[in-house]
Every structure is written in C-alpha cells, then in structure tokens.
Amino acid sequence: MTKRMSTSPQPVRIKHVPQRTCVACRRVVDKRELIRLVRVSGGGVEVDTSGKKAGRGAYLCRVQECWQTGLKGGRLEHVLRTSLTRDNLEQLNAYGKDLFEGVN
Ligand SMILES: [Zn+2]
User: Fold this and answer.
1) How confident is the model at residue 71 (pLDDT cuts 50, 70, 90)?
2) From the CA of 72, how far away is ligand 1's center (Å)?
C-alpha cells in the first residue's frame, strides 16, 4: 500500500487583473468594476459596454457619485481631451440614470 505523499508545492497562479483609475474619485480598481467611456471619432464620448472599443478611454466607478462627479466637473472631458456637447452629456447622464435607478 503506497500512500502518495505529494509535497510539491502547488504552483501559485497569480491572476493578473488589469486595474484602472476612476477619473472621479481616483481610486484604482479592477477594470471589471469600472465603466469605460470612450472618445469616438468625431469628438463625442460613448459608454463602452463591451470594454473593447478603440479610442481614448476613461473609467468611472459604478457609483452614482463618481458618475456625477466625472460628468459634472468636466473631468471626463479633460481626461479624454475632448469637449462634450450638451446632447452628448445628456446621453451619458441618461445612461447613468438608467444604471443607478432601481438600485436599492
Ligand atoms: Zn470612482
């Protein structure tokens, strides 16, 4: 009867989770926790739900406060080096509303 003595250490798998900074609160969090906004050709900003759109991107927490801060303070525009039109801003605000309404 042989008892297998496995003493070899388990390989430690370090999962590399990409991290990004929220432009509103400056916290560094897992990319998955954030919402990506991307500057599209033509100057507007879109919510990148897939996280894979090409273009200059910025990230916001899934927190209403960050969303508002990011949109209101012109931080998003600064980070993305673009300016948001009123329509564009409204669009993003609407997205934020949908996102956070009904939570709680
Ligand atoms: Zn944040």
Assistant:
1) very high
2) 13
